[in-house]
Design goal:
The complex is a heterodimer.
Chain A lengths: L4 E4 L1 H12 L4 E8 L2 E8 L4 E8 L4 E3 L9 H11 L2 E3 L31 E6 L11 E7 L2 E8 L7 H5 L4 H8 L7 H16 L5 H28 L4 H22 L8 E2 L2 E2 L7 H25 L1 H7 L7 H7 L3 H5 L8 H5 L18 H25 L16 E9 L2 E9 L5 E7 L6 H7 L8 H8 L4 H4 L1
Parallel strand pairs in A: 1-4, 5-6
Antiparallel strand pairs in A: 2-3, 3-4, 7-8, 8-9, 10-11, 12-13, 13-14
Chain B lengths: L1 H9 L12 H8 L4 H7 L3 E7 L5 H8 L12 E3 L8 E5 L2 E2 H13 L5 E5 L1 H5 L9 E3 L9 E3 L6 H15 L1
Parallel strand pairs in B: 1-2, 1-3, 3-5, 5-7
Antiparallel strand pairs in B: 4-6
Helix pairs in contact in B: 2-7
The chains are: A alpha+beta, B alpha/beta.
Chain lengths: ~475, ~170
Amino acid sequence: MNPTRTVVNEQGWGKAIDRLAGGNVTLLGLWGDAPNVHMALLDESTGNIAVLTYACTDGKYPSVGAKHAPALRLERAIRDLFKLDAVGSPDTRPWLDHGVWDGGQRTPYTFLPTEGEGLHQIPVGPVHAGIIEPGHFRFTANGEHVVRLEQRLGYVHKGIESLMTGATLDDAAKLAARSSGDSTVAYAFAFARAAEAALQLTAPPRAAYLRALMAEIERLANHFGDIGAICNDASFAMMHAQCGILRERILRAAEACFGHRLMMDAIVPGGVARDIAAEGTARMAALLTEIRRGFPRLIELYDNTASLQDRTVSTGVLRPAYARQFGAGGYIGRASGRGFDARRTPGYAPYDDLAFEVPVLTAGDVNARVWIRIREVEQSLALIDQILNRLPAGTIRIDVEPKGEVCEGLGLTEAFRGDVLVWLRLDGKGRAERCHLRDASWFQWPLLETAIEGNIVADFPICNKSFNCSYSGHDL
Amino acid sequence: MRRALFESFTRRPLTEPPPAPDAAGLAELAQSVNRAARAKLGRSLSIRQVDAGSCNGCELEIHALNNAFYDLERFGFHFVASPRHADVLMVTGPVTKNMREALLRTYNATPDPKWVIAVGGCAADGGLFAASYAVTGGVKDVVPVDLTIPGCPPSPTALLAGLLALLQKAA
């Protein structure tokens, strides 16, 4: 995809902010590219994407977050990484920068104030109790009830975008694929599409189908892992064990088909690095049969276990208005009435040739987020059927030659947790000059803070798991 | 649910035989584990996993160790929620500067005798991220490491082989 990028003045930038604040367009991304800032906007009714550029004067630009809250953390990150200031922003605290990058001491962080009788604070993290990523959660509670949750992230910031600057296309693709390991296929897919858009190439049809096959395998594996883990957080270990078996079988099939359990680095600019193994199609078909036999019984088990439903129904409700305002993607948005799916809008190859439905619910609770995943598993199974039946013959990769001039492109793919945006500018020799990766989590993490409000502290793990935002994809 | 539970009585377990202990891992460990520690620990090790900056790929495979196929607990390994209960720290990721202090504190909170396993290519030497302004390097640049399990990410089988090597030496 190669949306037009428009350089705007203060007036144009302000108009865009007003349209965002008015709910006419959705914020897809906001990133630094010193001395400029870029903003990607989506018109959900048409699927059109526009990128606006504002040239900062003295390192300053008018704050988007001042009128449109979803931009706040993005602006804080832009200041940390590019020293560009959002003028008028109500929140000027650092975000990714903890004060230690240049060898200094950790700077103290001011959490937002909470006032009221009988309030106490519970600090959690960065090192958590489970096998999960690090981040800090500051709960303010009255007894068991959460009054406010505030997140402090950035712990796994690795400087990925800075490492990509000047990297060859191959090296940059490898870095993109390690933004968030659980979505490595979706990231590699989005990066490849951005590179191909910049170089005006189209991957061969067989490669497009294999990419979608990998993407749906990744979605299945993650959804099974999540459904099991959410139930496990309600101490229903049996679902966890059964879903774990399905997940493991999928990863083994992925290894048999593409040589790597998570299919890392299998998608590359120009196509795919390896074709599906000779026995891969049959192996996948057999796996689908097995899942179709076993999964309906697990759905029934979930649906008919009252003690489990008691924990998931009406817990951690995300109001549809917030999902819409933040442009929340994935199961989080779709469980709260926002039916956006990048595979459908703006759509990309090969999904425009495939039939699938985008399930949407409005309850916005943990239960709805589980059901969206269940329905998406069914859709992914149907998609894999179609892909295997229609897999085109032919080449899987085309040569990627530098263009000899600066060029840029944008890629948007649907990872299991929501849309991944990659914006890439290449120099004349085909090296990455600037690459921005935006995980769906940027617009989901803030919503977890609202969803937990009024719930009890003990329900936080199940709410958190039902969101399953990426720390690494966010911190980069 | 009853039907599913009943079937588990009649079906064979999915759990697979363990892999051979990793030879390279054994050599590395021989230097760091002594007989006295073995006597103290018995045949059980508690693991505290610490993500010090990973992309979460390693976490997915460490999670898999608990599934029915690998069934880690049959070997006496189990994951614990606090470093104060742990014998082993399993550390993933290049150590980011933002996580350096948390890793050090976790290490200091773990009682002796203790072992540190660096899991994955990033934990070994910083991997693709070694050159970044935001990364300290590998785990060994922050805390002493007893065993390194390479891979991006290491498969559950590779993790299991490494852990078995540790148990043979430590227990």
